[in-house]
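agent> step 3/5: call structure_predict on target 'Jg3643 protein' (Pararge aegeria aegeria).
agent> reason: downstream docking stage needs a structural representation; sequence fetched in step 2, passing through unchanged.
tool.input:
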Amino acid sequence: MFTEFSFTTLLISSQHFLCSLVVFFPCLIMEMISEDIENMRAIVADKMIICLGNDQGNECLYFLQCLRQRPMNYVIWRAFNMNFRLLLNYSSLVITYLICLLQFKPILINFTVNVNSTVQY
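tool.output (status=ok):
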């Protein structure tokens, strides 16, 4: 069912995807850090409610305001947020490209056959 052309394309695309996982590993780390910061924000908010009238409550309020004003995220070239969404967008791009290649496979095979048959030696 699979020709050598499509199997090779599939193999190269899957190898490229696995190699790109190494590149996007920091995105996964950043997502885990963001989740920990959200948990820490909930803990500090609870602590602020308990210590509302004293200095510790004011420090908790200041810390929560700092977290709200400067959220923890990295941006690549001021264009791409470095989080799990970047990895999902990249994988959807690769899968879409792979589907397009597999759909154009019969056209490419017919084109190469026609070009090879019309060549004069």
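agent> step 4/5: record observation. Residues 27 and 83 are 5 Å apart (CA to CA).
agent> proceeding.
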